[in-house]
Design goal:
single chain, mainly alpha, 6 helices, 85% helix
Length: 128
């Protein structure tokens, strides 16, 4: 069962990167076909709406999203195995979450983490 969960993580991380899509298969295609700039813009708009970011936060979050979308892109576009991609994306996601905790206030960060967890659960449920 642990192996099965590990195989699901690359899709989970990739899906999280494009939070605004609801269809998992559409997410994967749109993710691969989009540029880092497009992904960063989509993430920023989603976060701006869902977390009620102020203008300063929008600017900081936008820069952070772009930075990590650019770091993620070579991994997402590579032909590496899913587990290898997962490990790399997970490490980058952890870095990004730490940086976000410095930008968002406590309430916003808690809501962000809750939404991220809910999204992960939704994806797991759809895969069953």
């Amino acid at each position: 069962m642990l192996l099965k969960q590990k195989k699901q993580w690359p899709l989970l991380v990739a899906a999280f990167l494009c939070m605004i899509f609801t269809n998992v298969s559409a997410q994967a295609k749109k993710l691969k076909d989009s540029t880092p700039e497009q992904r960063a813009k989509m993430q920023t708009e989603w976060m701006k709406t869902k977390l009620a970011l102020n203008p300063t936060q929008v600017e900081q979050v936008s820069a952070l999203n772009l930075q990590y979308a650019q770091k993620n892109d070579p991994i997402l576009q590579s032909n590496e195995g899913k587990f290898s991609k997962f490990k790399k994306l997970k490490a980058l996601q952890k870095e990004k979450s730490n940086a976000l905790s410095q930008i968002l206030d406590a309430g916003q960060y808690k809501k962000y983490e809750e939404m991220k967890d809910q999204m992960a659960q939704n994806i797991k449920d759809k895969r069953k």
